[in-house]
Design goal:
This protein is an all-alpha fold. Among the domains are: 177 residues; 174 residues; 151 residues, no CATH class. 70% of the residues lie in helices and 0% in strands. The longest helix is centred in the middle third of the chain and has 27 residues. It is flat. The relative contact order is 0.02. This is Ribosomal RNA-processing protein 12-like conserved domain-containing protein.
Length: 1219
Amino acid sequence: MKRKQRASVAAANADHDSDADEPSQTPLPLESFSGDACAALTARYGRSAAPQHRHLLASAAAIRSILLDDGLPLTPASYLPAAVSALRAAGSADPAATAALASLLVILLPHIPSSPSSLPPDAASESASALAAFLSSPDASRLPTGTVRSVVKSLGHLTLHLDAAADWDAVAAPLEALLAASVDQRAKVRKCAQESVEKLFAYLGQCDCTKKASNAATGMFEKHISSAQSLIHLNSDIWEGKETEVAHMLGTMVNLVPYLSKKARKKVFLDAYQLLGPCFTPLTRHVLRLLATLLDHLKAEGVESEVESLVSLVVAYLPYDEKKPDDTIVLAFHLIKSCLVKLVGRSKLWMEALPTAFEAVSGYLILGSKCSDDIAKVVQHCIDSHIDQNVLVTNGPQLTNSGVEGLSDQSALKSICLTINSRLHTCAYPPDSILTVVLGLFLKLGESSFVFMKDILLTLAKFVMKVDKESQLRNVEECIGAAVIAMGPDKVLSLLPIAFHENRLTCSNTWLLPILDKYTYGAPLQFFLEHIVPLAKSVQNASNRVKKEWKRKDLQSWTDQLWNLLPSFCRYPIDVHHSFGSLSKLLVEISKSDDCLYKSAVKALQQLVDGTRRLSTGGQDVEIYMELSALFSSKPDSFKCTRLDRCSKKDARKNLKVLASHSTSLLCTFTDYFLDSSPEKRAHLKVALRCLAQLSGSMNICDLFVSLVKRFDLEDTPLEPECKTDVEDRMDELVKKKDRKDEESTEFKTDEVDRKDGESTECKTDEIDRKDEESTDATVELNNKRSLLLELFSTFVEVADEDLLDKLFGFIKSCLLDSSMSCHSKALFALSIIVKEHSEYSLAHLDEMMLLLHGMKSALDSTVLESQLLCYQHLLVHMIKVNEENTSKKAFLILNELIVALKSKKESRKLAYDVLLATSTNLRSSESNSAESDLQRLFTMVMGYLSSPSPHIVSGAIAALSLLIYSDANFCMEVPNLIESVLVLLQHKAIEVTKAALGFVKVLVTSLQPQKLLNLQADIVSGILPWSLVTKHHFKGKVVLILEILIRKCGFDAINLITPDKFKGFVRSVEEGRKGNRNQTDGAHLEAKEHEQRDGKRRKRVDSNAETGQEGTPSRPPNSWSAGKKQGKDFHLKKRTGRGNPHAAKRHQSRDSGGKGDRTNFKPKSKWQPGNSQGNRGDKSPGSNQKRTRGGASSKMQNSEARAPGHSPSFKKRKRSTA
């Protein structure tokens, strides 16, 4: 019992000191209780058994009775004077009552409006003075923390109701009490007081009382600073907690600095910086924070000398000492940065301070700790802010080893670089922090880094040569790469030369080649031509002479790496105007090679043309520097490359003219190489030809095209489009033919068969002979020539004008119309590029293109089909975007081809899927000015096929819609009547339409979010559940899968609520199966069900025609229990018939269906009974048991199996039951 009592006392004491003393700060719903605070508190805490809540309610009720006796309103403002008076009366004699009254004040004060009508200034002043006196009394120190905190918070609220401008004396005492509480030893009291003081100072600033408030704050500061100055020279080990109150005062001043007057800030600054010494004290951290905050709010004019003195004090504190916490070092260096920023106009200060400060903190950069990374960031910021690259560039002629000492800027910079290099020498391997500083310094100095940082570069090179770990090498290689960008590869190679020794067959500094390949930007082309090319040729010649295989591989590897530098030197080169003539000769020379050198030539030309065009357009600096910044993992904040800055827009245009002047000759040369090259090499040369075509112009390409046609003896090929009137007439006939296709299909096929049957054997023989004569070597050669020209000029389509397009289209058309040509795939590919790149031209020749594409027979060639569908894709996109009435029917012709392809063989189906996806993606990204978006028009056009009389087309359209909603499920909700139109087709009679509709529903419920399924689930469930009674064609399995998805997304209760009573048991079984909670008593039933499904699959293989379901009628659910029972009995007969011998099953089926495999055409002799054909797949018709088929003598097993149904006991039993 005593133990329980002690526990309860301890819990009570803990409650007084915990946060639970202060009730919930959720505002009271006073409006619901006519403003009666006591009633609102009773409603909130009336059921609580906590002692503090009972005291709270008792105090509120007592005050309420007093207010009622005095006839005062029961508002929070009326409660305030009585509560304050009761609080002072209770004091420390009754802690529970005091805590309850303090909590009541905290709850009531936020509900008192700040207007004078709600709380008169006199009443507010009297209450505030009383609370201030209470906090200043000795009783407050003996009260629990929660109680004092509540009083402090109440006083903070109450002071905001005082009129400081009219009566400062009313504010002085509460302000002094709050300032005293802000240095309280109790953390919760102190934090609450600091928040209240900060709010009060902001309010006093609005009342024009900033000066008086600042005097109060400085008074507190001076009161504590004297003790701090007496302690500052003592050893930190003997402070014994004497600094705690001073530290709290400094923390409070940090919060008040933004609200102090200028004079007060300066006074605090003058006193505070004197507290900073070279050694760490418990006040150092707080002093550094206060000084940093003061510098952010002070102007440099009034404190220049003090800031200089502060810099000296901070620099004296920076040297490494184990007793100095890392965070104080970071704070001190941040303070140095703030001082330099404050005196940014005085360059002499940073020249003296920054090198000294950097030398002091450089030891921290090699520690590899969190402090190292923080200091590295501050160093980078100082370098970016104070090192002026323009000064270094202006004094470039003086930047020599002998002249650096005389220049103050360069002298300071050299001191920093020497410090970095000395620190690098002390490391076994440099950490990331110092490497980050090195990288930023390289990029900042640019070409000047060759003078200041060449020793650092040599030191980094030593690390690369002695370290093998790739993870450690990455950051060092990035620093060397920054040096390549800054200095240029020519300067880097002057310090780290790549030299080949022919006698020893060795090459020095080959580790530098990958770095040069990645980081070379803005380099001189002349340097590559004069130094790299001779070196590469020397190594190549040595490789050809060497007999040792391993040595030859090394030499060949170096040769390839040297030639791979060519594209790197072509990235924004600085001397295109002077060096491109020599470079073009080199490109022509190495493009002849069948080695891999032509790849470097092609890539170099592409880099050169694209880069020059980008610089000539202007406004691309951001993209270029983003490209450069992506090379570094550290992502430098300030990134500049002086080499690229020198190339102006005007210079880039001059360079572009130089490239254009050589483009025509290069185009002819590369064309000759292309025509004589292998397919692999042609793929690379097309990139170069495309770049040269952009420079040459369409007229030169047109002349080249005509000359090549004559050169290949193809002058008889028509190079002009057909007459537009004839094409339109043929196109109209094609559209009309499509409209009456369904009516005339049977007649057309009959006429065609009659015509073919009427041909004589002699005519067929003559045709075969004629084809044999045409298949000569000349025809094959002609086809090859056309294919080559088509492949070549498909690269020029992008820059072609209308005249060239006419010639190219005429050439393509002649190739497509000639059925003996084998270049149809390349012709169609070239046509697809024309359609893609030139929408206006394609729409102008739309009829002619449609006739060409519609006449192609691509069934035997997948490449032809792929190119044909690609043309359809781009044409369809253009036609939908144009949205003109005369193109709508033609767009339906394209959609018809795509939908037919969706129902074709697997390869064609995949190509059609890809085309539809690409079309929807292109239309989704386009902007439409009409109310109906482009993508919505595509959906609407596909939905038009849902009303087709052909089930084949309807199912294809549903498959297309399924694909489109899968790529963007949310968009299907914006298309009117889309989902409803497909759900209606669940009642269609055709099997393939039902299959497609169920597939659409599965995609829909899989892709949509649960919130969007809520409005659709009723229609979906009502549409799919009837098919749960049909096991054929996997309908039941599909319904189960859809229901599982719906239950997972919407919940079983929601689905069960909308399920008809007839199917509730089925839905419940789906839910149980989904959770895996099936009863063991159902095990036998489930096993029999699975067995029946396996037999159903076996029957499916037998009845192949019915499963294709082109236009068949799906079986409907049984209408009576007897039909289902008979189906279960017939299961034994079918199982015995096909067991172990599929041929016997086939014979049995042929006997039952009259020798035909299509059950839809089965006509029994007896009258058809409902339910017999619903599930008795392959069963005999009524009356067929009386017919006996004579078994063959080839196999005894087959005879026995054929007779088995007649002798089966189950069969006899079945006969007795039916009789």
